[in-house]
Structure formats: C-alpha cells, structure tokens
Amino acid sequence: MRFKKSIPNLITLGNLYCGFLSIGFAANGHFKNAAILIIIGMMLDSMDGRLARILNADSTLGKELDSLADIVTFGVAPSFLIYYTYFYQFGLLGMAIAGLFPLFGAFRLARFNISSNKTSINYFVGVPITAAGGILAVLTLFNYHIPNIVIAVIFTALCFLMVSKLRIPSLKEVPLPKYGTIVTIFFGCLLFVIYKGTYGKFPYLLYFAVPTYIFYLCYQLLKKIKNR
C-alpha cells in the first residue's frame, strides 16, 4: 500500500530526471534529444497528478515535489536548450537572456502555489510553465529553419505570458494532458520521428514512452466514458 502511494512521486521524480538529462544532452550538442526529453517530461507531468487522485495518494510532499520538478524540466532545461541553439551567438548576454526564462517560470509557479483559485477547472492564470517550456522544446527541433528574430519574439512573449494575469482555458476535466501538452506531444513527437536524419538515433526510451502514454490516455478516456 505504501508503494502504491509512492507511484505518483516516482513519476514526478522521473519528470525531474528527464530535465536533468535534457540539460546534459544540450550541453553535449544533442539538441533534438534534449528537446524530446522535455516532451517526455511533459508526459510524466500530466500523469502524476491524475495518478495521485486515482490512487488516493494526494500529499503536500507530492505537490511541492511537482513544483521543483517543473522548474527544472520546463524552466532550466528549456533555457539551456534555447541558449545552446539560438542565444549562444550573443555570448554572456545571450546566457543572461536565456536565464530569464526560469526566473519568470519560478515566479509563475510560486504565485500558482499560493493562489486561492488554483483549483479552478475553467482556466489557468498565465501560461503554465509546462506549456511554455514545451513550446520552446518543439521550436528547437527546427533550430535551422526558424529565424532568430522569431525565436526571440516567442521567447520574450512566453516569459511575460507566464507571469501575466491572462486567463488560459484549462483542460483539467478532460482526460488529456495539461493545457499546451497536446500540441507539444503529438506534433513534437511526430515531427521528431519523421525528421530526416534523426530516426533511430535517440535512445529507445522515446519508443517506450510514447506508446505507454497513448495507452494511458486511452485508459483515461474509456474510464471517463464509462463513468458517464
């Protein structure tokens, strides 16, 4: 029973580890691998909370762990990736600019954690860091095809949108991942797999994670239909 209640936390730790591995891959020049690890982290992030509710294993520890994992996988890791693929040409200035992303993301997470309306099923206040980090990861899959000015504009917009008071529609009641993950998972993974010259070079973790995640989504959907 104790192990059963630990499953959501293990999923969250897997998310955190994906963030760490992404930073390592980015530092060694394997940018597409680093981006896919962030996307896999998004899969895990969308599963841990739902599993905690299914297993009746919600805990304060799990919630704090989730925030710590998010800031690494969707804050620090994307900022490293965006630096190594785009902002490196500006030297220390580029590194300083890339470092702003986790700062905005951390502020957004902290505000969410103390917000009295964070349990709303209708909307998020500001773009979730998961979605923002995932968008940057997908963009870096095509770092040779997107102009630097476009990336700079999107990067800046995401930073401010995370800390904005803009209400973003929530999909919490839908048996699918958090807002922004749907686009990132299906388009990001599909485009990566068919991207010329990259198929087969990524560790087999990708080919295990995607089918497992799709099975999980199907299970959630069938469960939702059955309950109705």
From TrEMBL:
EC nos: 2.7.8.8
Main localisation: membrane
Pfam families, A to Z: CDP-OH_P_transf
Signal sequence, renumbered to the chain: none
Transmembrane segments: 31-47, 92-109, 121-142, 148-167, 179-198, 204-222
GO molecular function, one term: CDP-diacylglycerol-serine O-phosphatidyltransferase activity
Subcellular location: Endomembrane system
Keyword Lipid metabolism: yes
Top-level class of the enzyme under EC nomenclature: transferase
Family, similarity comment: Belongs to the CDP-alcohol phosphatidyltransferase class-I family.
Protein name: CDP-diacylglycerol--serine O-phosphatidyltransferase
Upper taxonomic lineage: Bacteria, Bacillati, Bacillota, Bacilli, Bacillales
